[in-house]
Design brief:
NAD binding; IsoPropMal-DH-like_dom; 3 domains; magnesium ion binding; binds 2-oxoglutaric acid; binds magnesium ion; 17 strands; Isopropylmalate Dehydrogenase; binds NADPH dihydro-nicotinamide-adenine-dinucleotide phosphate; eleven-stranded mixed β-sheet; alpha/beta; single chain; magnesium
């Protein structure tokens, strides 16, 4: 067995040894099928890109059903400690029961390790079947806040003593009389903080600056949820102007010019800012945004949004470029460099153990991981092999059912094909 070394971080700089140990969670449902395929592709890409000089040394950590069966715990503390210690991990999907049962282990991992950015890049691979006319116009990076919002699961069930206490408090201490059916309501709480918003928006703007993007769009439902989603928008604009004043032009500034000097002057100021290479920081209300990503996707590049909006938007956008089978993601703490890479999709239980589903989301999450480690040559090999394989129409069931004259292959065979096409 190859002996590996830990990835370390010193003064914010990541040191990646040639034989880097990377913890992985296999995942529930289709997780084992996908992981078997994805891990082979990632290993081979590193092997080929560096002629054996660099290697991934996998270290399994347990979560989900496998953890429960072996240890009696769904998310053992040892798993969290190992990921903290080794800095980087990659995972398959984990099941969350609807209604009762355990809360999301996926959310727990993000919260426990404070992985505040969920980065979900959405771009088109030539030849992938899509329901829209111009899927190639979609090239967006979703920065989804990953630790707050209603998604964090602070809620109380209808009929419990806890929910009665909360409803009594809201009605009697806060004077709220708008709970329509107080005797039969469940209650959920949606915390959205200034700190949480600022660190997410900062990560999005930094990304836009580093990658030469032209805009960052803050997506919110601030007209209805004024002090959570509305504040997300205001705090985002304030941060952009305060920390990046000379590099951005915001729609907040635009509105102030309209007020003072009229729209023509505001348009002129925005045009000047664009010509000077500044990033336009704008915003969109979530409902119309979901229409506009379909009708004019070219207008959006980097998107910063809250947790639940980001969850909806990332599945919707994935559909535009071929579906959830090819939608990667990364959960990152941009301050410490800690990260867990994972697909956007879930465990797809009806296909578990059938060697059937598309492993591309986890494979592409792996390429994000390789980029994060600075092993770009390996991630480029995979991206090229993905282009070549899809162009040759050798695909898993999800693409095959939408393509003419495709050859449908199993999860493991798709991995074989990618490895063959790495050249
Ligand atoms: N980060 C995580 O670990 C996540 C976990 N989950 C959890 O997963 C479980 C199942 O959730 P569910 O809502 O069914 O969502 P899933 O994403 O698991 O599956 C929904 C549908 O998406 C398609 N799909 C999913 N994965 C793939 C793939 N690899 N290749 C091709 N198609 C795919 C299938 O569509 P079709 O039937 O059309 O073929 C599938 O039926 C739940 O417990 C949920 O909480 C959900 C999301 C993320
Ligand atoms: O944790 C879950 O079960 C669902 C998570 C999810 O949908 C997501 O992160 O996109
Ligand atoms: Mg989701």
């Amino acid at each position: 067995m190859t002996q590996g070394e830990k990835i370390t971080v010193e003064n914010g700089k990541m040191n990646v040894p040639n034989h880097a140990i990377i913890p992985y969670i296999e995942g529930d449902g289709t997780g084992p099928d996908i992981w078997a395929a994805a891990s082979r592709v990632l290993e081979q890409a590193v092997e080929k890109a560096y002629n054996g000089e660099k290697k991934i040394v996998w270290k399994e950590v347990l979560a989900g059903q496998k953890a429960y069966d072996k240890t009696g715990e769904w998310l053992p503390n040892e798993t969290l400690e190992t990921i903290r210690d080794y800095k980087i991990a990659i995972k398959g999907p984990l099941t969350t029961p609807i209604g009762g049962g355990i809360r999301s282990l996926n959310v727990a991992l993000r919260q426990e390790l404070d992985l505040f950015t969920c980065l979900r890049p959405v771009r088109y691979f030539e030849g992938v079947p899509s329901p829209v006319k111009h899927p190639e116009d979609v090239d967006m990076q979703i920065f989804r806040e990953n630790t707050e919002d209603i998604y964090a699961g602070i809620e109380w069930q209808e009929g419990t003593d806890e929910v009665k206490k909360v409803i009594d408090f809201i009605q009697n201490e806060m004077g709220v009389d708008k709970i329509r059916f107080p005797e039969t309501s469940g209650i959920g709480i949606k915390p959205v903080s200034k700190e949480g918003t600022e660190r997410l928006v900062r990560a999005a703007i930094e990304y836009a600056l580093n990658e030469g993007k032209k805009s960052v769009t803050l997506v919110h439902k601030g007209n209805i949820m004024k002090f959570t989603e509305g504040s997300f928008k205001s705090w985002g604009y304030e941060l952009a102007e305060r920390e990046y004043g000379d590099k951005v032009f915001t729609w907040n500034e635009y509105d102030a010019i309209v007020e003072e000097k009229g729209r023509e002057e505001a348009d002129k100021a925005q045009k000047e800012a664009q010509d000077a290479g500044k990033i336009i920081v704008k915003d969109a209300i979530a409902d119309i945004f979901l229409q506009q990503i379909l009708t004019r996707p070219k207008e959006f590049e980097v998107v910063a949004t809250m947790n639940l909006n980001g969850d909806y938007i990332s599945d919707a956008l994935a559909a535009q470029v071929g579906g959830i089978g090819i939608a990667p993601g990364a959960n990152i703490n941009n301050d410490t460099g800690h990260a867990i890479f994972e697909a956007t999709h879930g465990t797809a239980p009806k296909y578990a153990g059938m060697d059937k589903v598309n492993p591309s989301s986890v494979i592409l999450s792996g390429t994000l991981m390789l980029d994060h480690l600075g092993w770009r040559e390996a991630s480029e090999l995979i991206a090229k092999a993905m282009d070549k394989t899809i162009a040759s129409k050798v695909v898993t069931y999800d693409f095959a059912r939408l393509m003419d004259n495709a050859t449908e292959v199993k999860t493991s065979e798709f991995a074989d094909e990618l490895i063959k096409n790495m050249g």
